[in-house]
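Support reply, case 0932

Customer input (verbatim):
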Amino acid sequence: MRKIFAKSSLSAKKSLGQHFILDQNLTDRIVNTTIADKKNLSDLTIIEIGPGPGGLTKSLLKLKPKHLYAIERDKRFIDILRDLDQSQINKLTIINDDALKISIRDLGQMPRRIIANLPYNISTTLLINWLQQVKDIEQMTLMFQKEVAERIIAQPSQKAYGRLSVITQWLCKVRLNFHIDKRAFVPPPKVNSSLITLTPHCEPLYPAKFEYLEKLTAITFGQRRKMLRTSLKPLDIDIRALGIDQTARPENITIEEFCLLAQALERVLTDNLN
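Our regenerated output:
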């Protein structure tokens, strides 16, 4: 892949957050991690975001998925992707578009898995978008900056615990697979990366609506050094009645407690509309 990329005379665009993995051994390892519970991809619809010159795409095609959708916004790489593996070309659909504009349910049939070395500049936006479509996804194996991955897997009372931790773990079982040194990428980013796997729960861990949980966590973690009674005071939520310590800060609140607060927020906002 390094030779193909060098021959193409193309370079990564910083504006698109591009950092490519061209080591075929590493891309094979990523794919094998993704299918650890399966022998191959033959019954899976695979969705890849930002394939670039196709390092990961090539590893995916080797395992003959039911179908692979490669979504690439940068039109410079479209012809390279088309030439990757002619023997598997009927299993590959290349979509030259912005992944944020595409509904997952429009891509093939379940079971669907998303496998991607995500563009750094939109990785969290993509994740939040997919979490809202989680019923249409069997599993996600995603590459993030190490700092972002730490936020996703963090537990209450840990420094990295925040909005992303709460919403992701509410909807998915999260597994850290391994870290990848920044030197494995072309061009090398400033930080190391981590590969994590998200497997949606059959149902969210606790009752709550996405929009209210998202709003509540944005408010509280946006003022993370403030106690709940201070950050939530304008919302008129009776925190004490929920059995939650109103002097606690958001990093000490469990996912279950955040869901109770989200339910209370929904009641307050609904009452205000009536």
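We compared this against your earlier run and they match. Two observations from our side: The longest helix spans residues 255-273. The two ends are 60 Å apart (CA to CA). Please reopen the case if you see a mismatch on your end.
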